[in-house]
Backbone:
């Protein structure tokens, strides 16, 4: 066990897997010598060299498009998209090609890769360095979507993601890249995909969150506790395919649901979670499921702390849901 | 001031087959009887199959088909120049490349009819087919997206120091896509061993090449990527073979990729099959007898394959849910079971 | 009044508005002399010429990117994307630029256009000529999303869309391009954006649908009627911003909801509609809202009629929701 | 076979200012005292402001800033060559272009501080600013997307037979984007009057130009679009002015757009301000006295503007919901009212 932040844990996972599996190749803008703008790939170029840690030309579409070719050849690319706000030039390659290759080839040409990209607000990045586009990928059949909330899960989920046979979008909450610290086992271990973590058990309200907003949910739950409301906090960890058993079991217990995410509310992942709970636990619902999300606006620069669904916006939703 | 405007003159595409059927003495390679015959036989096979597909599409038996009639020399000549374990990334008109690589006619027929015996379970609209056994890749009909895949596979081979290259085909319209640019720019920087064959047939659906770009031809676009650019007579299978062999060798030697513009002459102009036949007739190895036999055999093979596919049924409904992921996740199991 | 199909009605709207407003420019692949692959722009090039009906190079990103520049200059572009499956190369320009220009410029640089594109399955197009990507645009703040179900609405909604100050994604259900016929007024009229149409009143179940699937909903409702179930069928027409009053009023009346769409279920627009109804009519819900959608798979070629949420799949959902 | 491989020699970029401060006799334009002084003053203004921004960013007062130190000649020379009602599409380092177009320093300061008096209500991270009054466009920090906007605006002007052109700036890294390709290809086909200025400073963040592309320089990429390609000394404001004037005139005459590669010399090499000052000193119109006064004035103006912005407050919370649509729809009204 060593104390690590998210950046160090992800870096440790990449290094570990690159030593273990020489098919793994890291590519992206500035991932080489400087180790990426957030230094997540720092030191990999020094250890693995030009052929396995590649600074690419400035094209996200080129990065993912060529990574698909590498995967077909038999390598295991782990491309980095510098910010998830820059992923759209690669959107066609991800949703039209990467997601569909296994299916359209009858299973003969799966293209396996893990696309890593920093996600979310909180670093004064304004509308093009703060977005949370997860639902735009969850809607597309064939992709798995992961978002860790702490260093231990970040390493364990990234190792699972690289070893999983399907393409994975791995969203790294940049707001807590360095703020979230914790014990991380040395060497090999995995955190399974598709399994949520019940961070705190409670009987009154189920709170679903992930990534950086998990900490806001916890802060709000602490406040709610003072008002006698016991929240069950579930860290989804894998967004899709989501851990439906854990969610349904929790809602059947509490009868109440609050979903928190940074992405705009409309057609965000929260809508799907509410719809799924309706389908699977309708008679258990004692209050309308609440969504505490980013607004249906672009992401602001000066007012980003007003935009984010922080504890002060989550608390009233928990209270009104509990008191409904 | 140093001006780098386009040169006004277009290079005339290189040819090898002369009007009298002989091969231009400057041609760099020896052409064996076997290869000469194989090139011609595959062009004929592609042509016959293609014409049947056009008819089946008119009858509504298959939903769509992109005909390569007149472009067989570009398709067959290029794939014939590659090594067996090189990758091939077709666009919509390259059924001939899959046939050259050994895809059985029956497999092709099951593909275009989307039967239960189609390797992809009837998931794709017709053309192009993929053929895993011979590294013919699965591509989408989205124009341009596969160019990056070809570059990536070639780049991977270079990383692994393997003597493996990629051949990718596309039409001149595809050169307007962002993928063409980003992919060939990666190819230039990485020296990926890729041969990019642009079939310039002058049209993208209803849009003429003159509205597609203001560059002087398409091979010149290679300059933007530090690649070699070459134009070749796209109705001359021997010339295409030679140009792509040159490009394959250059790539294998570490000098990087080549953009080959295969200029397809207008319908009025020389038919690639006729031109190659004229050449074969200069050889002892070919005569009217063999010509007749070939057409009879090909026609019979094609009809047999189509009949087999048309007798086959559609895939089982449950197959829709397979291969989305390696294992069926809970939500797809629920959706599948709800159909039961 | 003249009898028209969808193609003729949309063509009529374009011609009408191009005569009325010389800022309107049509551009796209093959929209000129041949009038587009579905002939929707037929005859416009003959009447308005090269400068207002433009065959572009083969790049959807280039089409929308340059159209944004035209809009900034003061023109009113109406680009066509040949199939909505091909819209992804333009996705970055649409979601990062078009949708955000008004907001990021404090209202000084709105970019107005209507992006027309055929949507949906039913023409044996396979996985790349059949998709329904509407929720990928509804999630993005700043866009309006429209999908007509009949010739009258197609013309009236397109005229409203062109005259509306905001960018509009105008999805044309290609399966009914020629099959849907009806009376279309000559000359000028509009169907307002943001207003749904109650196609049929009913007391038992609210059925929300749009585009080609509306006809399947009607067919299913006819069958349900024979079993004594009276469906209220709402044609949303404008998907976003959706007509929330009409939806909520209907669900408050029926207490039951079935949503139908072709797009994959997960994170489709149906999820948002279910979540909204939960927020606004929770206590009126007498059964879990049902979603009848495309499967969470790519769109198949041979089995497309199994994939589409046709009447035979809608009916059981209506019945079980009504009988719940 | 006709080979179109890249020429091995790089053209040396055109300069106008000679070491002794004189202008090369071959220079095509007369340069008035007023213009010469204005060019220099704006480069100084951009430099001083830029250095202050770098400091403010280090202090964390502003979240980010992309410095144009050393690139002022390319930025100011290009915009100075355009007509007043031409459109300007900056990338991240062109605050100097907005200043040239008359954007008040205070407006810039409110922008970078995201205050209540920022024209965009503090919605954007710092740089580049837009200035509607002078057709300086609003662009995103997404590399390359604005090139299509510049081409589209120029194309629209051509459709409307207006003598209006577009100037668009970007770095050499942006030439790898799909948008660069698709946009300039449209420009070539439509003969849109656009001047595309590529500031080649040799680096895209940490990536050297040699890893960005294998083409021989960047101006040569114009060949792929039938555009004119020109290289110019990016530290020579007079040369940039001349090259962009040529390009603007050529475009207005209907000959289409130009890709200008402004080669920025390495930090060690000549400073664009020093080079222009040396030229001014060859004129009666400039001396140490004016130089001193200019720096004093600029410093004072900049501090005044920054102080004003730092005294201003943040925008009201409700402004988040404005301008998403022309009118506030029901769902945004609900989200706004929930904050009350
Ligand atoms: C991204 C994308 N845009 C548009 C289309 C529709 N489309 C199919 S083929 C074609 C023309 C292609 O022309 P070209 O590249 O010259 O190939 P050719 O058909 O001439 O072989 C178009 C526009 C598509 N399939 N994909
Ligand atoms: C689409 C996109 N990808 C990546 C980035 C991150 N990024 C910002 S600036 C930059 C380098 C740009 O280099 P260049 O185009 O040469 O401009 P310069 O900074 O040298 O002026 C990168 C990669 C971005 N802003 N947008
Ligand atoms: Mg063509
Ligand atoms: Mg640069």
Residues:
């Amino acid at each position: 066990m060593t104390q690590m932040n998210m950046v160090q844990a992800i870096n440790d996972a990449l290094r570990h897997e690159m030593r273990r599996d020489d098919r793994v190749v890291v590519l992206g803008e500035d991932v080489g010598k400087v180790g990426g703008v957030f230094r997540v790939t720092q030191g990999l170029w020094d250890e693995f060299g030009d052929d396995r840690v590649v600074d690419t030309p400035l094209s996200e579409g080129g990065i993912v498009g060529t990574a698909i070719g590498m995967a077909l050849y038999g390598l295991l690319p782990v491309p980095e998209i510098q910010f998830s706000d820059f992923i759209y030039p690669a959107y066609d390659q991800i949703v039209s090609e990467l997601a569909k290759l296994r299916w359209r080839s009858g299973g003969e040409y799966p293209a396996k890769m893990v696309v890593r990209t920093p996600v979310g607000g909180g670093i004064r990045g304004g509308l093009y360095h703060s977005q949370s586009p997860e639902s735009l990928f969850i809607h597309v059949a064939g992709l798995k979507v992961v978002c860790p909330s702490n260093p231990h899960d970040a390493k364990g989920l990234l190792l699972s993601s690289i070893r999983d046979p399907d393409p994975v979008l791995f969203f790294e909450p940049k707001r807590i890249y360095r703020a979230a610290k914790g014990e991380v086992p040395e060497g090999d271990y995995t955190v399974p995909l598709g399994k949520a973590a019940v961070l705190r058990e409670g009987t009154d309200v189920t709170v679903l969150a992930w990534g950086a907003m998990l900490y806001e949910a916890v802060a709000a739950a602490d406040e709610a506790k003072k008002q006698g409301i016991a929240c069950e906090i579930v860290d989804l960890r894998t967004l899709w395919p989501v851990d439906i058993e854990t969610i349904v079991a929790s809602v059947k217990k509490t009868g109440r649901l609050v979903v928190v995410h940074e992405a705009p509310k409309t057609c965000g992942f929260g809508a799907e979670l509410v719809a799924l709970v309706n389908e699977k636990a309708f008679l258990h619902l004692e209050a309308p499921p609440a969504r505490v999300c980013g607004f249906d606006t672009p992401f602001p620069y000066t007012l980003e702390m007003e935009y984010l669904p922080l504890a002060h916006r989550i608390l009233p939703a928990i209270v009104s849901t509990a008191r409904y | 001031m140093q001006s780098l405007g386009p040169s006004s003159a277009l290079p005339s595409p290189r040819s090898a087959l002369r009007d009298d059927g002989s091969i231009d003495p400057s041609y760099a390679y020896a052409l064996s009887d076997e290869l000469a015959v194989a090139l011609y036989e595959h062009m004929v096979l592609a042509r016959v199959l293609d014409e049947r597909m056009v008819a089946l599409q008119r009858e509504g038996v298959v939903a769509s088909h992109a005909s390569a009639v007149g472009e067989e020399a570009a398709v067959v000549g290029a794939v014939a120049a590659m090594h067996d374990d090189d990758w091939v990334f077709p666009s919509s008109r390259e059924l001939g490349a899959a046939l050259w690589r050994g895809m059985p006619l029956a497999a092709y027929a099951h593909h275009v009819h989307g039967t239960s015996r189609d390797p992809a379970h009837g998931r794709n609209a017709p053309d192009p087919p993929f053929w895993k056994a011979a590294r013919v890749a699965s591509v989408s009909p989205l124009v341009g997206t596969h160019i990056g895949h070809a570059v990536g596979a070639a780049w991977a081979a270079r990383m692994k120091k393997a003597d493996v290259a990629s051949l990718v085909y596309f039409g001149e319209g595809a050169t307007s896509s962002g993928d063409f640019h980003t992919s060939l720019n990666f190819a230039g920087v990485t020296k990926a061993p890729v041969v990019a064959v642009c079939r310039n047939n002058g049209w993208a659906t209803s849009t003429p090449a003159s509205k597609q770009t203001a560059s002087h031809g398409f091979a010149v676009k290679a300059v933007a990527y530090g690649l070699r650019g070459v134009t070749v007579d796209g109705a001359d299978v021997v010339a295409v073979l030679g140009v792509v062999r040159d490009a394959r060798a250059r790539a294998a030697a570490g000098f990087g990729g080549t953009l080959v513009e295969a200029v397809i002459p207008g319908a009025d102009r020389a038919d690639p099959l006729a031109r190659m036949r004229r050449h074969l007739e200069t050889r002892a190895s070919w005569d009217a007898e063999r010509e007749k036999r070939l057409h009879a055999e090909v026609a019979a093979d094609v009809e047999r394959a189509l009949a087999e596919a048309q007798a086959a049924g559609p895939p089982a409904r449950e197959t829709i849910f397979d291969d989305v992921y390696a294992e069926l996740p809970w939500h797809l199991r629920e959706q599948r079971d709800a159909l039961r």
Notes: Chain B has a mean pLDDT of 95.
